[in-house]
Amino acid sequence: MKCTAPFQTTIPEGVKSEMSKILFLDRDGVVNIDKHFVSRVEDIVFVEGIFQLCKYFEEHDYQIVIATNQSGIARGLFSEQEFQAIMSFILEEFRRHGIVVLACFHCPHGLEDNCTCRKPMPGLFTQALRQFNTEAENCISIGDRERDIEAALAAGISQNYLLQDPQMNTGHFFGSIVVKSLDEIVQIHQRLSLEAQN
User: Fold this and answer.
1) Euclidean distance between CA atoms 33 and 45, whole angstroms
2) What is the pTM of this model?
């Protein structure tokens, strides 16, 4: 099954449809703390360091795209309209911090729907890459679940970060750099950039 309405996109006026680099963010667990099916604006608490991380990557010419499974819609836990209201709040908070989120792609289906856009399938990523005429090799993804990494890898993105709870210690996951904080991603990217220049 393919999503009939997975690609609700918010594109700011004046932004070109062709981008060279994209930073893909999962939402729950990366942008905001995952409270298991967030359904109200009042429940949104931003992950420490998310605004600093996005400012850093914007300064390095990355556009910010959110790619998120939202099966709570299929489960009847919240509506499409409630999801959009939460996203409007999140995007406004990013704007308040001087950050433009280029787009938000979401899949509203459940596991039983066999949707090609529900992570770990790559549909959310491939749609964004096509829409913005961007090569996967120029992109980075950050997720907090293995399925986020699997979806990015399937879309051809090789630079992936798996953000884990600091109290967890699973060590590593194929195709990703495991980190305990968003600040650690900035530090790693700075180091890799310096190494590439030498």
Assistant:
1) 6
2) 0.89
